[in-house]
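Example 3.2
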Amino acid sequence: MKKTRVDFPSGELLLEGIVVIPEGAGAFPAVIVCHPHPLYGGSMDNNVVHSLCKTLTKASFVSFKFNFRGVGGSQGEFGQGIGEQEDVEAAISFISTVKAVDSNRIGLAGYSAGAGFALPIGSGDGRIKAVAAVSPPLNEFNFDFLKSSPKQKFLISGSRDNSTAAEEFLQFCQSLAEPKQCEIVEGADHFWWEYESRLAAKVTAFFTKVL
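Structure, written as tokens:
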């Protein structure tokens, strides 16, 4: 396993990220993981982001997490969601050029607000083959674009999520175009404490199947 701290450009800004390349001979599929809301303490060091990346790498994916603008060592300041979408696009461009990555097998995952920033970009970007939303905050972001998206998509939430009620989550999932996979994890809340490994295993299984 090779872990590398990187700086990559998003417009005129430099963002920091961590790329982990698994053991063995590439090229590997890759998954970009986007952290929750920067204004509420979200960063690439988040428990869910960390668990996802660790589990993906064990399953022979290149994992790539990064800090949105204004977070940690990333330059700039919060971009009202617009700048963050630019950061997602920049992250896709960066990981597509990494030598160990099979550029035809790239997935994109976002947790909470990270899903709100990432999925509108990933759904329209031909370089992204599959998307995953962990605890998508349906009341804070418009995810209606997923209803007609032909991409492979996985949505997962906890039964005790205080941001989006389980009934609302399932109702939204029913409205989505195929191919889709949706799951509620019994007992988990929005923060996934003590459920991280179970969540990471499910997300990794999805990407293993579709990439």
